[in-house]
Structure formats: structure tokens, C-alpha cells
Amino acid sequence: MNLHPHIRHSLLASALLLASGLAVAAEPQVIAKELQQAKTYTVASAPIEPLQMDPPKLPDLTGYTAEAVQKKIDRRLKGKVSVRRMFQEDTLKEFVGGDNKAAEWVQRQHGIPQAIFIDDGHVDLVELSKKVPKQYLSEVEPGVYLARLPIVVGQKGILEIDGKVKQLRLSQEGGAFLVNDGKLFVTDTQVTGWREKDNGPATFRSPKEFRPFLLSWGGTETYIVNTKMASFGYAKSKSYGVSISQYTPNMSQRMGRPEPTGWIIGSTFSDMWYGFYCYETQDFVVKDNTYHDNIVYGIDPHDRSHRLIIAGNTVYGTKKKHGIIVSREVNDSWIINNKSYDNKLSGVVIDRNSVNNLVAYNEIYRNHTDGITLYESGDNLIWGNKLINNRRHGIRVRNSVNIRLYENIAMANGLVGVYGHIKDLSDTDRDIALDPFDTKVSLIVVGGELAANGSGPLSIDSPLSVELYKVSMLAPRKASGISLNGVLGERQDEILDLLVRQQKAVLIDPVERQTEMID
Questions:
Q1: CATH number of domain containing 481
Q2: Measured CA angle at 245 (ends 88, 210), to 5 deg
Q3: Does the annotation mark 122 as catalytic?
Q4: Which of the following is catalytic: 122, 292, 302, 322?
Q5: pLDDT digits over 384-399, tens only?
Q6: Is residue 143 in a domain?
Q7: What is the tens place of the pLDDT at every residue in 421-477?
Q8: Residue 468 lies in a domain
Q9: Which end of the chain has fewer surrounding CB within 10 Å, N or C?
């Protein structure tokens, strides 16, 4: 990142100002050495050319617009509307199948559970309200509609909730929710989980308490544009808030439907259990949204999702965990140009064998643990991010190899600018059998600035290898000056001589590994 000197000095001044107010213990001993380090490392100059890269190519986002969504809506065929029992419906088996799941809706509906179904064509919400009994869906004030039953969009159905609807309220008492098994378009409106008793939103009270939610199944398309959604979701499978999910495996095989997709653009999500969740989803776009004050996660793509675009979002105030996290084989995706701040844990997390992702040009600050965290996820590129005033590390890398950190700025973080380490997780509750990984870490750090971080610019324990080039290290917080921790600290003079005085690339390599390679 070739910053103009004035911009660099301005950023540095800001970082120092933030650092002066940081109330975090920042001693080196805070950073645990998780496993035994290799005994001997060599430090040598490395060829520069393999480390040089052009800036990453970003996806073209210009086509993801409200106008493009409108062109996708086929209104030619009027859909069929019915109210029928929730039982024997594939789309609802998750909620009324075995284990007495139906009891929730029996209790709320005071009888055999029913839902509103849209099949074989297009219906908008205003039309829908005129086709079902008023006790199930009605206009309670001009432009404001209250649904007291679940609304299900069938495989050939299309539901449109547009600007004619000021607000759709989904009754918590009635057990209302939205399930999309076809196409769903929500534009220029508000959709709110609603507590009739309070005549207000169904604000979060307990993880186990039912709250309305939106779920889209395999083979579906879901578009949410310029809309406010609030007070959705609770701690029950597929009921997290806004969820995009393939069917459970036995249903997927029987129904043979492709992975779901869609766009969420220009919208706001708050007080959701999860702001966004997806499972086995492809080519989904989450662009230019605001996720604030959600309970567990802001944005949480999960298992075997791929080619996702998470771009231009602002995520803050997540109460329990991370702002943005991708976990468990979420691959080939872009997390770019987002702002993630003031979240309870990390700003951005790449987790559990998620590979070949680009995390670029994000502003990540004031998170209560790390800026960017990579857990057990190799082969990822972290480029041009600003990580400022996070309480722990700017970037933390655990049990992950071939992590390329290019042109990142990590300033005024409580502990280390870039921290790499290994950890034995066999005694933890993580599902190691299903998610195997090696306790190895290797990093390439090129360009960028590491300044005014509480425990120093870099600490790397037990690396398979480390390569450094053109890394600027400024404004140490310690009177003793710049100090490198971990294995870098043992050879600090040699490393800084090559890196700073000679302007060369540096390779730090364990002797044991060199011996293995010769053998």
C-alpha cells in the first residue's frame, strides 16, 4: 500500500492517540507459547520476485442493483393461495417433524398447526392479505400488515413484499415465520418480528424463546433490497434469523435441488440471533448492508458454501461473538471493503478449513478481541486491510499454512500486530474428527505497516516458515524500541538487518524442516 507521507503520518498519529488510551494488559508474557517451538531456525535473505504480487482482482459488483432485482420478478402468472395444515409438507418438516417439534405451533395456534401457502405463480403481500381470513393476515393500520401464521412460498411460487407494504409484522404469539421454497423478493419495506402483547418488536429475551425468522431452502432465490429487518431468530436449527440453507442430507438427495442463491443489498438488520446465516449456498451476494446490535453473529456463512461475495457492509455491536465469520469449508469467496467494529469478539474470522478466500480492503477496529482471526484455514490472502485499536491482536493466525498477508496496516492493537501460532486442540470441544488439520503455521508478510501495537509488531511461534519483505515497523510502544516476539525475537538483529538496512526479503526456516527436505 503506497501511502502518501501525509496520510501515513496522519494514520500513525491516530494510532498513537488510540494507543495512549488503551486499557489492555500488553506484556509479552500474555501471549502463550502453545506448543514446543522448533529448537533452531535459520535466517537468510530470500528471492524477492516470488513475493511480488499485483493487487488482487475484485469481482465486478456493478450488476447487483435494485433495478436488476426488479427485472428478475415474473408477475405474469397469478399464484394460488391456500391455508392448510403444516404436516406432510417437506418445507416444514424441520419445524413439525419428530421430537414433538410441532408442540410449539400447537400451543401458539391453539390447535392443529396451519400455514399460508403460495404456489404456482406470483402473489404480492397486499393481494395475499385479501385471499386469506383476516385472523391470519390483515392490514392493522394503513400499509401495516400483521401475520399470525407461517407464510410458505412453494417451489413454483413467487412472493413479493414491496413498498406498498410499510411494514410486515410477524406475530411471535402466533408463531409466524417466512419459509421460501421458490422465489422471494422483499424490497423497500420493513419486516419485523412482532410481540403483540407489547405492540412492539419481539426484542431478544432468551436464546430458547421462539422468535419469527426467515428461511430459504435449496434451489431457491432470495432477494432482499432496501429493507429493514429486525427482531428475528433464536437458538434453534434453521431458525437463526435470515438463513439460506440446503435441505438436510436425506431430503437433499430425495428432492435433488441445487444450492440456494440470491442477493441481499442496501438493507439493515438488527436484534437478530444471526444477522445472516447460510449453509451449502453458492454465489450469494451480501452487499452494502448494515448489521448492527445482533446477538451472536452479524454475518455467518457456514458449511460448504462457496463463491460468496460479502462486500461494502457495515457490521458493529454484535453482542456475543464475531462481526463477520466464515466457517467450515467456506471457500473461494470475497470479504472486501467492509467495516467491522465494536463486536464482542473478532471483526472478521476465517475458520475450520475455509480456503482460497480473499479478505481485502476492510476497516476493522475497536473489536474486543482480534481484528482478523484465521483458525485452521490455510491458503488465504489477506490484503490491504486496516486493523486499528482492536483489544488483542491485529491479525491472529492459528494452525494455518500459506497465509499471505500483503499491504495490511495494523496499528494500536492491544497485543501484537501479527501473531502466528500453533495449538493442540485435541482436548477442546471442537469436532476434530470431522475437521482434521495440521498443527502448523506458515506466513508470508509483505508490505504494510505494523505500528504502536502493545506487545510489538510481530510474534510467530513454531512456524513451518516465515517470509518477510518491505514490512514497515514504526512507533514501538516500549521504551526499548521495536521488539519481535516468538522465534523472531531470538534472531531479531539479523532479521531487522536484512529487512530494514539491506531492504531484502527474509526467510525464517526451522533447521529440522531443512533436514527433512534433504532426507
A1: 2.160.20.10
A2: 70
A3: no
A4: 302
A5: 999 999 999 999 999 9
A6: no
A7: 999 887 765 555 446 778 999 999 999 999 999 999 999 988 999 999 999 998 667
A8: yes
A9: C
